[in-house]
Amino acid sequence: MRLFPALCLILTLIAPVARAGGDAVAAPDRHDPTPAEAAALLGSATLPALRRIDDGLPGWEATADGRVIGQIGSTWEIAGSVGYSGRPLDVLVALAPDARIAGALLVQHNEPVLTLGISDADIAAYVDGFRGYDLAAPAASAEPGLPDVISRATVSTGVIRDGILRTARTLAMGRGLIAGGRVNRLDYTAAGWGDLIAMGALGESAIPMTEAAAALSGAKVPLSPGKGDFLHLWAGIIDPPAIGQNLLGQAEFTRATGALGAGDAALIVMSSGLYSHRGTDWTRSGVFDRLVIRQGDTVWQPTADRYRMVKRLALKDAPAIKEISLFALPAAIDPTRPIRVEVTATRAAASGPDLHLTLMAETTLPVRFRADPVAEVPLWQQIWQQKRLAAAVVIVMLTALTVILFAQDWITRRPRLWRAGRLTFLATSFMVLGMGLNGQLSVVQVVAFLHSLLNGFRWETFLIEPVIFLLWGFVALGLLFWGRGVYCGWLCPFGALQELTNAAAQRLGVRQIAVPQALHERLWAIKYTLFVGIVALSFYSMHDALLMAEVEPFKTAISLRFVRAWPFLLFVAVLLGAGLFIERFYCRYLCPLGAGLAIPAKLKIFDWLKRRPQCGRECRMCETKCTVGAIDAIGRINPNECVLCLRCQVIMNDGTQCPVLKRRARAGD
């Protein structure tokens, strides 16, 4: 069939169009808290006045009776929170002056489970559970104050938790409520000179020649007023790769930071103009007598043993700079607190004492380049630690399935072993993987992955749920080896339920309905249309796409374990009822997840399923016995529809079923 390349093309073309027409990938409209909302968040009896702050750390300051009663920040603005759906997730977080979370308000989300599986009251109670959490307390004592993630919504509520805590800590550090924390020496994003200046990574100050000449007018050798700068100074902490690596380039940045001792930080001082910030006396004395670094009451004069010269910057858009110096700061200087760099020019006076002119450049490491002050284990690592047993069970199942698929030739020559092994594995998939571990994949996750790729992929988001992550990792690899059947035929709990109920129906004598091949192939189009429709609709309205995704019975039957309103239960009952007469009815014609997995099945590297020249010509038994009708009238297996049940391989290797083997046996006699 030529349907699948066409569907791929449709998906490629429709996404940009849908994005242009909808609200999907754009940042949410900023939600300015009302005085009433601020009062509720901060627990204030009076309506506070709110002042918007945009100083590199956006937020609102709340005041009442002339005093500051709290700070409010948005998880989207500060932490860039993106949910499992790949869409912005915005929570307003309020901080009290004592660095406690005063309250939190969920403003916007598009999370699939939150939208349809959990009540608004559950969400509100979870978000409100962060009230009272003490950001200034040690991690060990503060951790019990956090609400537990909601079961059945581990990923979504975990992302909400992460966004609230990161926003609260960043806001608390930026507003001086808690210590500044450490320097983030890991994250890198490309930035130009203008970007670094705009984000406050470099402090800047300058003295024009005219101003310097006036200030030093009594010098023995006076300066001549004119155009240009007497001294133009820039300074900043370079340890964050987003600052240092952009300024110096990868090689020079590595050499510069690699020479630093444990806990040290590096300060870059750059200048242009007539005057040198270094001078030449330091080569003899070992002390840069023109430079002074101040932080509060701490005063430090750089020395030659902590100096490194840089010849040029890596940024092409940087201004012409005359001198570049790197200084390893002593432990007494905290790189996360404001630093003042002073350069003093000294001239002999025509009479009396020497004349001095000092230029000061203030620099503060932007909040975005500071790490959390508390060395907490990332949330996804905590969850993996808690779910070690569940992850181990999944790994055992995936290992067993790998053995089955690699040893399929040996297994399919033993029909009883194959039948018993398959039914046992399917029962385990339904009871353990599905009902026990909630390991049901969904088309919603495919949509979330696509949106995550477009909006900024984050591994942490997908690592929050170990069972789902392990399954998707195995399925992604399995698509290259075996196609969609790795999941659909063996690991899908609802697919397993369908096959098990149909097997029971056949044993009870329920007559099976053979769908004519022409109709059968045309009905395939339903699931592919559903998949394309859900993906396309998600670019316009994620909420509507999630509603459309209710065509999947997985949430009702597996995730919510049949505890749901009667219309959903009736829908599942109809699908399972149809499956009693047409094996895997839902898989064949309606499953959008199966369609989504089938599209990349064309990338399958190996062809493990064997066929004989006589298949479809002299014998059509495999066609009639195929679980999902994936074998056509001339014996070809359609990899887009095959669920890899191996039934056709059992028939081919069974001398009591395969006509070719029967004929060979008779010829041998």
* Residue-averaged pLDDT: 83
What is the SS-derived class? alpha+beta
Tell me what portion of residues adopts beta-strand conformation: 5-15%
Helical content, roughly?
Answer: 40-55%
Report strand order across the widest sheet.
1-2-3-4-5
Radius of gyration: 33 Å
Structurally, how many domains make up the residues?
3
Q: Total strand count, please?
A: 16
Pick out the low-confidence regions: 1-25
Distance between the termini: 43 Å
The DSSP helix count reads 31
Q: Which term fits the overall shape?
A: elongated
Q: For the report, how would you describe the main beta sheet?
A: 5 strands, antiparallel
Q: What quaternary form is this?
A: single chain
Task: Describe the model.
With 669 residues, the chain is α+β, with helices and mostly antiparallel strands. The protein folds into 3 domains: 151 residues, no CATH class; 189 residues, no CATH class; 285 residues, no CATH class. Helices cover 45% and strands 14% of the residues. The chain contains 31 helices and 16 strands. A 5-stranded antiparallel beta sheet has the order 1-2-3-4-5, with helices on both faces. Strands 7-8-9-13-12 form a 5-stranded antiparallel beta sheet. A 4-stranded antiparallel beta sheet has the order 11-10-14-15, with no helix packed on it. The two termini are 43 Å apart.
